[in-house]
Amino acid sequence: MAVRLRQPLLAQVLLFISLTGALGFLEYSTLLALRFEEFAEVCTLLLFAWLAASTKVASFRNPYVFLPALGLVSFVLLYAYVFALRTGAPLLPSIFAQRYFVFVLLGPIVYLLSVRGWELADFRRVFILAMLTATAGYAAYDIILAPKSALLSGQFFVLQLGSSYLEAGGELRRLNAVNLFLLLYFGGRLFQARRLLPFASLVVAVSALLLAITIPRALLTSAVIALILYVIFLRRPGRAALTMIMLPLYIFVVALLTPDLRAAFIGAFSTDLSYEVRIVEVQKAWQVIREYPLLGFGQDSVQSLSYQDIFGHLYPADIGLLGVTFQFGLVGLALYLVFVAWLCTNLLRLVWAYAAADVSPRQRLFVWTLFIVCFMFLVASPLQARYIIPQGQGLPIGAVSWGLLMAYRHGLISTRTATQDVSLPLSPTPTSV
Asked: Residue 97 belongs to what H/E stretch?
């Protein structure tokens, strides 16, 4: 008999723990022994297993539930085997090294909770609370426990340079996407609700302060580009349709300007420490890709044999799309690009649908912020493949967005008065629980 979530407190708690762990809560140098991320991964598995076993719609014929789980297992086993084949390393450590990918199951979890009656507002509350907890947790750690406080140092715009980049900025850089999300969301809330003005102002100020310390150049540049592209080309369906018609011309113009852009990029960053590091990593990546183009080098493990053991201190796993190809080959690159393009396209349609709907401004703002951040990750992909690296926060954000899209396609979360021309096609209503 199906267990109904009439009191969804346990589901809320498990989802909250899963999200906070995925977003980097308590993953600080002096608190790693707590293993909160591993605890969050276990909570994700427990919540998925509970919902999948107790919801009638969760049959093996439902591709939105078990197909992601099957795909996840297949992906992990394949690239653990590939690495073992390339290096002779044992298989099991490489499997455990990919445990972070369990947060992919947040997508089916969101869908199953929608089947049980959760609305967009329920997910928004848990999601925003998890982000606030991750940011507040770092602020408390930095002020109370950190060997050297970044917030109280009075030093801004410096952690991206020199030894301090390696020593003091690791934990904070992991929260860059979280802080940017909170900055966009609560920045919008400042114009929506006067009663939230003090709290929203505080969140905006703290988020901006944390970003000002590290100045994630690639992330901030991608955010600006994403916002400009949205305002000029994607804000309305008509503009987007015209953009698609003109896309070949835009690509041609960018191709013509590529040599000049490359020269400007080299001139701006050639003296930067990170630029020299990237050059070495790119050279190593191309050597591997030429030798193993289809499936790449596979997934390493620090418990047995790591990339650092093989390639030295500068290893090419975290250099954007080239790093994805190095690690997972052309197959992994194709999967990454197809998923990201599908996600951003359908999130944009969801933004249009909510813009035309009679819904709470908070819901519109939440969906819009999800799209902008996911689109920002897409723009940043040539330099940072944030949807797949553990420090990028793209995996949990993308998985939650994917789950909301699956729920919307099945009419489980709806825009009551959305016009038909901008809404996503709806499938038949799933089996009731």
From this structure: helix 91-97
Question: Residue 248 pLDDT more than 90?
Answer: no
Q: What separation in angstroms does the CA of 60 have from each of 12, 69, 70, 85, 405?
A: 25, 11, 10, 32, 20
Mean pLDDT in residue range 5-17: 79
Could you report how far apart the first and last alpha carbons of the chain are, in Å? 10
Cβ–Cβ < 8 Å for 387, 377: yes
Is residue 221 situated within a structural domain?
Answer: yes
Tens of pLDDT, residue by residue over 290-303, are 999 999 999 998 78
CB atoms within 10 A of CB 165: 16
- CA dist 377 and 398 (Å) reads 10
pTM of the model: 0.87
Q: Domain containing 156: what range?
A: 9-409
95 in Cβ contact with 80 (< 8 Å): yes
Secondary structure of residue 355 in the 3-state scheme: helix
Count the domains in the chain.
1
For the record, the structure tokens of 193 come out as: 């609700």
Name the residue with tokens 């014929």.
61
User: In the structure encoding, which two tokens stand for residue 175, read together?
Assistant: 């929260």
